[in-house]
Amino acid sequence: MAANRSGTGARAALRRSLHTPIGLSAVIAGLLLAALAVAAPPLFGDRAEAIDTGATNQGVSGAHWLGTDSLGRDIMARVLVASRLTLQLGLTATVIGLAGGLVLGVAPSVLGRRAGRAVTAAVGVLVAFPGLLFVLFLATVFGVGSTGAVLAIGLALIPSLARLIQNLTASIAGSDYVAAARILGVGRFRIVVRHLLPNIVEPVVLFGVQAATGSLIAFAGLSFLGLGVQSPDYDWGRLLNEGLGRVYVNPASALAPGTAVVLAGLVFGLIGEAVAQAGGRRTVTVPTATPTDVPAAAAEQDTDLPPGNANKDPQDRPDVNGDALVQVTDLRVAFPGGRTAVRGVGLTVAAGEAVGLVGESGSGKSLTALALADLVPYPGRTTGTVRFDGADLRSNPRLGTDLALVFQDPMTSLNPALRVGRQLAEVAEVHLGASRGGARARAVARLAAVGIPDAGRRARQRPHEYSGGMRQRAFIGMGLMAEPKLIIADEPTTALDVTVQKQVLDLLGQVRAGTGAALLLISHDLGVVAEVCDRVLVMYAGRIVEELPVRRLADAAHPYTRALVGAIPTMATDPASELATIPGRPPEPGEEFPGCAFAARCASATDRCRAELPVLAAAGGGAGHRVACWHPAEPDAEPEAARAGSEAAA
Ligand SMILES: Nc1ncnc2c1ncn2[C@@H]1O[C@H](COP(=O)(O)OP(=O)(O)OP(=O)(O)O)[C@@H](O)[C@H]1O
């Protein structure tokens, strides 16, 4: 598990941690404790076992620094010797707890949805049991003695650890880089080993150290109650039990094993603190993107992709209907509570075509894209058909090689625990059966192709050493490790600095021109789509309301599209004037309306608009222009910018 966390990163963190007082103290104290457990039995074993009936129940003296027990055995020697068994039992119980917790913790990520939920529910029930009662119950079930106590304490640790791991893995399983791995076809088990576990190592180790302290104390408690270690064996808990009866005669006989438990607990706590410090320091050095990190010329200079132009000549555009790479019919995405976010979307993307999907925040663009890749998050339910290159994508996923996804936030789309080159290489290993060396060479070549300077060295770095723009480039490079036929880019530039945005858009254009891949670009910015795409689909409240070639945007017929077009600032826009906005707000996914969803915000709405749902039908902007509106604007009508702007100002 820890092997995945990189060696050098972990070693560097450890070295840094050693230079802090806590780290240094933890290492020294841990070594001393380990040395005591190893050396005490051979050194003091005989003295600890030697019965002297002439010196029973003695107090502190020069011969017996902590006195003797009821058989005249030296208490100090016994406390020292007991360190081995105490630590052995405590650590064994912790290992059982960690192993069980890991298995149950990652099970929901590996098993199917139903079995995963059953495991989660079972863990939830077990967590609800009071821990101490659980230990006592199990100790009684397994019987009195060391083995029973180890099993009881180990098993009692499992539910809380499993719950922790389930929570941690659930949050990581929802991250973009795990979605990316899934879409690249990486198997569930491999995702757990390579993506989930490396990212939860630190909190799990920390929890493990705390659990070790807890099990030490639990052992002392069980042995003290007579349920743990049985004579002639002895651990600190048992010595405490024996010493307590004589606490008024010789307080040291009870204080010494009690103090030993506390000190060992402190050492474990110190080690945990050092681990947390080492982990914490690793996570604070994430640089933010700066425009200068990606030189403007990098894409042009370092790329081996042909210089592309995303704005292809419209005449070159393939026949969408006859040559559809993607054909989506009646796509719906619904969440519990009647929240339907995507309400019957139909769309096509031709091979090599660049299609933009625009709309306000919440219109369902991202869910449409996720549904294409069958990545809608649970409990969302997807219906409808998605045909990709002739096959039903939802029943026959063809992910990994044919489909590449670029996410919005480059900070979360790469696994922070893996080197960038390794993440790219994994795609070639999994899908192309490439050797490790071959996959690495391909990864370096792809990084260079997307304009990462000094790609060989950069491939060995981790995502936090990249700027935002470089991460997005690297992620696009990851999509190019195979030969994708379709790239779905969901707001790929939103999280980037404005100058880097331009470079990433150019890069997408070059990639497309170089590979012939089709592009589905999702954006709330019509200006971005107009720059990159051939065709635009306008989405409103979960439906496509207009579809038209980018070059005919000026002929948009839907009032919503016209308002969006009017909201794009141009060189002629007066900087002092207010930008046009659309008054009102879009409906929520749960809101039902019999007619047009835009009616409430539309100046041209009539009773028919509010009562009857308009469907997509041919519009006046020529071939490929369809609009869902009862009162579409004529092609030569005045744009709506002025009106939308004045309404917004009002
Ligand atoms: N996991 C979820 N559970 C419930 N509702 C969701 C979930 N994901 C999205 N939604 C809802 O579905 C609607 C559409 O979401 P989606 O992310 O597709 O919008 P979008 O058009 O991509 O917006 P943005 O540009 O802000 O990403 C939103 O109203 C959102 O609240």
From TrEMBL:
The keyword Transmembrane helix applies. It comes from the Bacteria. It comes from Catenulispora subtropica. Gene3D superfamilies: MetI-like, P-loop containing nucleotide triphosphate hydrolases. Pfam families: ABC_tran, BPD_transp_1, oligo_HPY. Residues 326-566 form the ABC transporter domain. Residues 83-272 form the ABC transmembrane type-1 domain. Residues 286-299 have a biased composition (Low complexity). It is a multi-pass membrane protein; Peripheral membrane protein. This is Dipeptide/oligopeptide/nickel ABC transporter permease/ATP-binding protein. Belongs to the ABC transporter superfamily. PROSITE patterns: ABC_TM1, ABC_TRANSPORTER_1, ABC_TRANSPORTER_2. The keyword Nucleotide-binding applies. The chain crosses the membrane at residues 21-40, 85-107, 119-142, 204-227, 247-272. It is found in: Cell membrane; Membrane. Residues 286-321 are annotated as: Disordered. Keywords: ATP-binding, Cell membrane, Membrane, Nucleotide-binding, Transmembrane, Transmembrane helix, Transport.
